[in-house]
Each structure stands twice: as C-alpha cells, then as structure tokens.
Amino acid sequence: MTPPSTPQNPALTAPINIVTTRPPWSQTFSSLKIRNYRIFASANLLAVIALWMQRVAQDWMVLELSGSVTAVGITVFMQFIPSLVLMPLGGILADRYSKRLILMISQGAAGALAAIMAVLALTGHLEVWHIYVIAFVLGLVVVADQPARQVFVNELVGPAQLRNAISLNSSIFQLGGMIGPAVSGVMIMAIGGGWAFAANALACTITVISLLLIRKNELVLMPPVKRAKGQLAEGFRYAIGKPTIFWPAMMAAVFAIFGLSLPVLMAAYANNVFDAGAGGYGLLNTLVALGALCGALASTRVATLRLRGVMSAAGAYGVVLMIASLAPNMVTFGAVMVVAGFASLLFLTSSNQLVQMSTNVTIRGRVMSLYIMVLIGGQALAAVVIGLVLAKRGQLTLRLNLRSARHPIFIEAKPAG
C-alpha cells in the first residue's frame, strides 16, 4: 500500500544532485580527501572506541555493584528512554541551529558526565543510582547529538560526497565496535573500569577540539529554519509522503525488531546448539563485525541508490538468516554470520543514505530524528520482548568473557537441563 501523499512546499522538496556512476576503487575513501571531514572522522573513530569502552565498563560495574542482571537492564532502559520519547525534538534543534555548535555542546556534556563517572568510580564512591541518573542524562544528550551528527556530515562533505561519508561513518562505527570492547576488557582486568570513563571523557574533549579546528568557511552550510508552529508535524508529513523515506523507515523498524536481535540468537546457538560456550559466542560476534565492516565499505561501490536496492539488501539479510538456521556445524554457521553482517550493514547504510539523499536540507534534521527513533525503538522493543521471554523461562544469564573481542559482557541463554 502506498503511503498517503501530502502537498509539499517546493522549497522543501527540491531535488538534490547526486552522483549515480560507480566510482573507481581509488575513490573508496574519497570523502577523506576533504580536510574538515578528515578531522571529524579521525576524532569520531577515537570517540566510538572510547564509547564502547565506557559501555562495557558501565555494564560490568552495574553488575559488580548490584549483582543483578535486572539492574543492567534498568541502566540500558534509562539511557534509551529519552531517545524513544524525545528524539524528534533533537531533529527540530538540528534544523534550527548550528549543527557544529550542537555537537560541541553535546560532546562537552557527554565528556563532563564521563568525567563524573570516572571520579566516582576511581574514588570508590560510585553507586548504582549514580549510574542510573548519569545514564538518563546521557540519553538526553544523545537526543540532541544524533540528529545533528547525521545532518552535519552533509555540511562537512557536500551532497556529492555524502553517500561515501555515510558509508565511512558506518565503517568507523564497526571498527570502533571491534576495538573498544577488547580494550575495555583488558583495562577492567588490569587497572579497573573507572579508567574507561576517563578515556571517554578525554575522547569527548578531543571531539570538541576537532570541531573547533574545522574551518567554517569550508562547510556547506544549511539555511537555518525559523521557529514556527507545527514543525514536528511537518517533518512527519514529509516523511510519510515520500516513498524513499517512508519505506526505508518501515523496513528499518522491522529490521530492528527481528534482525538486530541477532546477538541473542547467536548466544543460544553457540551455547545450546553447537556447545561452543562463551568463546564461540565471542568468535561469532567478531565474524559478524568483520562482515559488517566489509558491508559498510561495499556500500561505497553502489553506483545508483534506489529503493529496490535497499529492499534487496533487507531481503538478502532475511534469506541469509534462514540459511543460518540450517547450518549443520559451527564452521558453516560462522561463515554464514560473516555474510549476515555484510548484508545487515549494506542495508542499514544504504537505507540511511537513501533517506538523507531524499530529504531536503531544510527539514533533514526532523526526518533523520524520526528515522533514528524508529530504528532505536524497534531494537529496544525486540530486546525487551526477547529478554522477558527468556528470563521467564529461566534461560537468561549475564556473563563476563574478557577474551571476547566484541562482547566481553553479554547476555546468553542458559544451558538446557
């Protein structure tokens, strides 16, 4: 069924010029040739690594202080609930004000929160309720940060390099997700989790400095939207009125609910089907991350961005998961997980690209905030439902495995019997 269309303001729906020819291999990292983006991407890699370090340390310290898996779940809930409720407001901020300034403020605030956590942890005064409060405030920071971050990429590189920059951002996130947890695991064992918060505070400071180093006169600045009534509703109408925005968002919601629960499913397979334990689970996550990194880089090679291409990537991911269910052994299952990681990131990156390229700059912050909210909301819903079902059946436990490259701390299914 085609989503309802609404009358559009021509100023908001003007076409955006994009490159539709397949770039040569030498252009895989072409957006890094732009000084401003190179500075931003370098700082972003450090920030992602440090953020993963903090996430792992935070979960471990909550478990250590409370001895409760439920407390870990509450921490995650406190950090995500602002995004599920308030993310569209972050989109309005991104459309009205300087994206660079918003990021400087949000990263400064995130750094201050990380520093507070570090001081409390390193002085032995950290309590669970401290983590709850800081996690909630950090969630509010994310509401302002994420829409501005998504839209700021266009100001850094311009429309012609936007797709390439989005792909590289996905690659950076995957690379940071492989490095950060491993570093945090070693740090927890060697000197304590408090230093992971200190590392994130330092990374946030470096991010703010990198934003100060960006040359404003080289930015492709977007015109700010004047304050007016009904701007949130305008963004919603705009999103559902364009098939190239509406359908990727719907697919992202379904993907988040059914596809992003893969870590829980891999835990059950590693533990109950292949009897590979925590080590096998860590290996599977590494294989998925490897495939995802390749998928993000492969998205830079897609010549023409179309809705059917995004749908094909989502369908391919579903087919790969069905094949995985038939895998006879751990080796075959692991090989399929590489392909699953590839297909999942190819879909997520292509979907993000299509939504951004289909949205005029004057309303892009609001549209991207809705897209992020759908993606986060679907993932949170899937996590809650699966967690409740497994916990009710007594099949859920939290484990620490510092040998895992990607998930030193994770939830897995208990052994049968």
TrEMBL record:
Subcellular location: Cell membrane
Membrane topology: Multi-pass membrane protein
Entry keywords, A to Z: Cell membrane, Membrane, Transmembrane, Transmembrane helix, Transport
InterPro entries xrefs: MFS_dom (IPR020846), MFS_trans_sf (IPR036259), TM_effector (IPR010290)
Organism domain of life: Bacteria
PROSITE patterns xrefs: MFS
Transmembrane segments: 39-57, 69-89, 101-122, 128-145, 166-189, 195-214, 245-270, 276-298, 305-324, 330-349, 370-391
Domain called Major facilitator superfamily (MFS) profile: residue spans: 36-417
CDD domains: MFS_MefA_like
Stated name of the protein: MFS family permease
Protein source organism: Arthrobacter stackebrandtii
